[in-house]
Write a structure and sequence with these properties.
- With 207 residues, this protein is α/β, with parallel strands linked by helices.
- The chain has a single domain, classed as CoaB-like (Rossmann fold).
- The strands form three sheets. Strands 5-4-1-6-9-10-11-12 form an eight-stranded mixed beta sheet, sandwiched between helices. The protein has a two-stranded antiparallel ribbon with strand order 2-3.
- A hairpin with an 8-residue loop joins strand 10 and strand 11.
Length: 207
C-alpha cells in the first residue's frame, strides 16, 4: 500500500511579512503517517509549516501555500493507492499580494479575498481506482456539513471532528462512509485515533 497524506496548515500571504493561516499543529496528519509506516505502508507526506519533525520512514514534501500543496498532491497522487487529506488548508487568499509591507493608514483597511484551490475536490475528481479519505472540521451542523463535503468532493470516507481538535494532543472523530453510514467512532490521543484509522483502512481499503 502506498499512501499519500496531507497535513498541517497552509499560509496565504497578504504582503511579504503577514499571512492568513490557522492553528493546525499537524499532529493528526503526522500521527497517521507514523501509524501507516508502522503498518508497513509506503507513505508520502505533503506538509504545510509545522513545528514537529517529519516522521521517520516517509517521503517528505514541504509546502507553504495552498497552491503549492495542490500542485504536489496532484503530481504525487497518481502513484499512490489512496490519500488521507488531513491538512487544514486556507479556504481564502488575498486577491492581490502586496510587495513589501502594508503600512498603517490611520483607518480601516479593506482586503478583497478569493477562494483558494480545492485540493480535496480535485483529488476526488481524479481518483479513478484510488480511494480518498477527507477530513471535515465542523462547528455548526457537523454531520450534515460533513456529508455534503463527502459527496461534493467525491470521497470514499470522511473523518468528522470539531474545532477542539486544533492544536490538541487528542481527538474524537466520527468515520463516515460514502453511503452516509457511520462505520466507526474513535477518541483518545491522536496517535491512537490514527492507529485505529489505519487499521480499519488496512482491512477495508487495502487492495
Amino acid at each position: 500500500m502506498r499512501l499519500l497524506v496531507t497535513a498541517g496548515p497552509t499560509r496565504e500571504y497578504l504582503d511579504d511579512v503577514r499571512y492568513l493561516s490557522n492553528a493546525s499543529s499537524g499532529r493528526m496528519g503526522y500521527a497517521i503517517v507514523q501509524a501507516a509506516v508502522a503498518r508497513g505502508w509506503e507513505v508520502v507526506l505533503i506538509s504545510g509549516p509545522v513545528e514537529i519533525a517529519p516522521p521517520v520512514g516517509c517521503e517528505f514534501h514541504s509546502v507553504m501555500t495552498t497552491a503549492q500543496m495542490r500542485d504536489e498532491a496532484v503530481r504525487l497522487f497518481p502513484d499512490c493507492d489512496g490519500v488521507i487529506a488531513a491538512a487544514a488548508v486556507c479556504d481564502y487568499k488575498p486577491h492581490t499580494r502586496i510587495e513589501g509591507k502594508i503600512s498603517k493608514v490611520g483607518g480601516p483597511v479593506t482586503l478583497e479575498m478569493i477562494e483558494t484551490d480545492d485540493v480535496l475536490a480535485e483529488l476526488g475528481a481524479s481518483k479513478d481506482h484510488r480511494w480518498v479519505v477527507g477530513f471535515a472540521l465542523e462547528a455548526q451542523n457537523p454531520r450534515e456539513n460533513a456529508l455534503q463535503k463527502l459527496r461534493k468532493k467525491n470521497c470514499d470516507w470522511i473523518v468528522l471532528n470539531g474545532p477542539q481538535a486544533i492544536g490538541s494532543e487528542s481527538n474524537s472523530v466520527e468515520f463516515i462512509a460514502a453511503s452516509g453510514e457511520t462505520v466507526a467512532h474513535w477518541q483518545g490521543p491522536k496517535s491512537m485515533v490514527a492507529a485505529d484509522l489505519i487499521e480499519w483502512l488496512d482491512t477495508h481499503a487495502a487492495r
